[in-house]
Design a protein that fits this description.
Order of helices and strands: HHHEHHHHEEH
Shape: globular
Oligomer: single chain
CATH topology: Four Helix Bundle (Hemerythrin (Met), subunit A)
CATH class: Mainly Alpha
Helix content: 55-70%
Number of domains: 1
Strand content: 5-15%
Length: about 180
């Protein structure tokens, strides 16, 4: 298994069906509780340990998910209210080094995600098929993305980071004879 991509990378082939979108919306809805469960019981030392060699600390991963998903929620709203909006990219690796990411209690981001994802799911369920085809332009990649593709990518993104934390927990558990 590639520790950077424990569930593989996001890829999409073919048309996105309404059923696929609904599955992704459910994953968006479930992410806050899954992320919370993944860090449950971890102490401060564990939260300040990288999930893999060369990776972010668990605490940074939690705060990164909140930062990333806030940005995505905004991108959805821009795409829905503007004609092929040009979004503002951000340097996630720089954000991960700011004090609110390195030092803040993870409960701040876990609570934020609880409420953000509730609003996001309400928004997503209100969209029509044509809304999901709306686009935004990403100047960093120089690509245009449809909202249905972006929905799948962010459902994957949350699962990807929960898998990072669970892989860390499993390694710790194995190293401690089945106990964490």
């Amino acid at each position: 298994m590639d520790e950077r991509y424990p569930i593989g990378t996001f890829s999409l082939t073919g048309e996105i069906s309404p059923q696929q979108r609904e599955g992704w919306i459910q994953e968006i809805e479930q992410l806050p509780s899954r992320l919370r469960s993944s860090v449950e019981g971890l102490n401060e030392e564990e939260l300040n340990t990288p999930y893999r060699e060369g990776g972010w600390k668990i605490k940074q991963v939690v705060h990164h998910v909140a930062d990333s998903h806030m940005n995505s929620y905004t991108r959805f709203k821009l795409a829905l209210t503007e004609e092929t909006s040009t979004i503002k990219p951000y340097y996630e690796e720089r954000w991960a080094e700011l004090q609110d990411t390195t030092d803040a209690d993870i409960e701040l981001s876990l609570s934020l995600l609880d409420h953000l994802h509730k609003r996001w799911a309400i928004l997503l369920r209100s969209l029509t098929d044509s809304d999901f085809k709306k686009l935004f332009f990403h100047p960093g990649s120089q690509e245009t993305y449809a909202l249905d593709y972006t929905l799948g990518n962010y459902a994957w993104h949350g699962n990807h980071h929960v898998a990072h934390i669970m892989a860390y927990r499993n390694k710790r558990k194995d190293a401690h004879g089945g106990r964490l």
